[in-house]
Each structure stands twice: as C-alpha cells, then as structure tokens.
Task: structure prediction
Amino acid sequence: MKPSPLPDLAKAPKAIELPVNRMLARLVNGVSPASVTMAFADWASHLLVSTSKQAELGQSTLQKWLLWLQYGQHAWHGDCTCCVEPLPQD
Result:
C-alpha cells in the first residue's frame, strides 16, 4: 500500500496570512501601522525636548479647560452662548 502524500504545508501559512493582511489593510485604510507608530514616536520625542512647546500646550489646555467649565456653568443656568470662536482655518 502506497502512503498518501502529505499536504504541502508551505502553502498553509499563506492561506491564513492573506485574509488577515487584507482585513488589516481595510482596517487601517492601507496606512502601515508601523509608519504611524514611528511618526507618533518622532513627534513625541521632539515634544519631549521642547520645553517651550510643552508650556504653550499646557497653557492652551488650561485655557480651554476653563472655557469648558464656564460653558458648563452657563449651560446649567440656561443662558448659554457660543463660548469658542472657531479659528479661521477650521
């Protein structure tokens, strides 16, 4: 009796890898997750050494947080007006 041939195991991982890669490409819109991670790490490293930009972002965050609290207070009382004017590029 002749033994049955073994299936070609080299093709098995590709059969699984292809649908997974297609699903990942659809999920990330064709943008490489590695390149996005590297871009974020580059941005974070530049921010880490730029203390003036950190202070500027902190001040902006505090101002916007205070505006948000003021908006909440006015909304609670019912006399709510527009609290933030959009920037020209928005």
User: Anything to note?
Assistant: The chain has two domains: 13-49, 55-82. The radius of gyration is 27 Å.
